[in-house]
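Quick illustration, no need to memorize.
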Amino acid sequence: HTETGVGNGPVRLPGLESAATLNVRGSDWPLLTLRAPGTPRRGKPSVVTGTARLAKSHRAATGLRLSLGGEGCGLAASAPGRPLGTAVVGRDGTWRLSTSTVNSVWCARYGELTTGREQTASWVAQVAGVTALRGLTGHVTAAPASRTTAKDTNVRVRGRVWPALGGGDVRLQRQVGRSWREVGQAVAGSTGTYTLIATPPNRGANAYRVQLRGAAAYRGATSSTFIITAR
C-alpha cells in the first residue's frame, strides 16, 4: 500500500493507492518518524532526525536506507521535492541527516524507485515534517569578475543569497550622486547563487551593490559596496 505520515501520525491516502506504481507485500513493515529542525541559522547546518522500527516486532529497522527530500516534497506522489541525500537507520533504530540547505518541509521515505540518476516519484512510504520559516535575516554577497575594465564593457557580478529557497529576487544598483539606481535584476537559483551584469558607464570609479528583496520567510539584505574602475 501507499502510506504517508505527517509528524508521527500515518495518513492513509486512497487516491494514491489507486494510482500506485508498485505493489509491496510484507508482514512486518517499517514505520518512520521524523523530527524537523528548528529555525535555521546562517552558517549552521540543519539536522533532521527520526526513527524507523518494525510495526509488529518493534525491532529497529537496522540498515534501512532512507531518501531525504526538502522543499517541494509533501503528500503528492508526484512531488519528490529537493533531493537532500540518504540516511541509514542505525542499530538503535535512529537516523539523522545534516544539511546546509534551508527547507520548510522535510520528507523521509523508503523503497524509492529510481531510473538511473532520475527519481521516479514512487516509494513505499514516507513521513514528513515542517519547519516554520518566518522572520529570518536575509544575507547576500556580491563580487565582480573584474575590478577594472573598459568603459561600457559588461562585467559579470556573482554572489549567493541566504536562505537559499530558490526564487530570491536580487537587484543590482549603481550609485549616482547620493542615491542608488537599479541597473539589473536576477533570480537566485535553488542553491542561492545568481549572476548579474554590470556595465560601468563612467571612467573612473563606479560604485555598485546588490540588494536581496525581502520575502515571506526572510527580511531583505544589502551586500557590501564594491567598485569597478573603468578606463
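The two ends are 69 Å apart (CA to CA).
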